[in-house]
TrEMBL record:
Protein name per its UniProtKB record: Anti-sigma factor RsbA family regulatory protein
Domain MEDS: 14-156
Keywords: Kinase, Serine/threonine-protein kinase, Transferase
Classification via NCBIfam families: RsbA_anti_sig
Amino acid sequence: MMNVSASAPGGFVHPALFYRGQAEYLAGVGGFVRAALAADEPVLVAVPAPRLESLRDGLGVDAAEVTWTDMTQLGRNPGRILAALQEFADRHAGRPARIVGEPIWPGRTQAEVLEATRHEALINTAFAGRGATILCPYDVPGLPAAVVSDARRTHPTVIVEDKNLPSAEYADPSVVWADCDRPLPEPDGGVPRFGYTHGELGEVRAYTGAWARGTALSTARRGDLIIAVSEAAANSLAHGGGSGSLRLWSTDGTGVVAEIRDGGHLADPLAGRRRPSLASANGGRGLWMIHQLCDLVEIRASDTGLTLRMHMTCA
């Protein structure tokens, strides 16, 4: 069994587990979970569904003591993962939580991988000083080499062949965050812009609703899109210079994208990724809601303002 040290009181441990094949996966993750249960520590396992079943079977009756989450559902939008991990730790305040999180698996799109990499870096900021251990498995044969390389930059330690070693490539989360701000690809063909300013949120909602009726989105998802766009536009008016523009387009009939551009800035990289406090006057509720409604959220900041892309699948 590999040596993955649990967090010391007030400390945070965040190793990447590089595995090759099912046997190494079950030995590494299963051993981590068994050690936590033996220490009477709360355990959350958030991995893709096929991995969940194998781990459950391997743990036998002990599986009932673990909180299980299908990461393909929770992490469909990587921006939703962090809050779920924090909420699990908060429910067990005063005890060192043990978490397995696998946010990147074979088949993820490049955009999803980029946002999941951003998530992995931000874990180190969000959990700094907390008594928790988050183990992140990486399928070395199934993932691109660049993904494995980035994992060495987002995790302070890495586990290879049962050895937990410091990662020489570990980088400050702010550096990784900046590296993830790559240019967004332009949609095919010309996409018109709909400009708006104060007093025109109704027009934004009407424009979005009329456009969405021509897509393959269900009635419920059309409503979600209108809410997400409305929240983003409201943020433009409140924090983005008082005006903005909206573009809407379909992606080969499988999904839709809504893009908001304005003159705003993102001061807190964790905004929208943590559940906002009800006591906060400006708690990022709009961005939080957008993350809950959308299947992928991409944010890019520049000297001239902010670009927010919201993706929804039609399935």
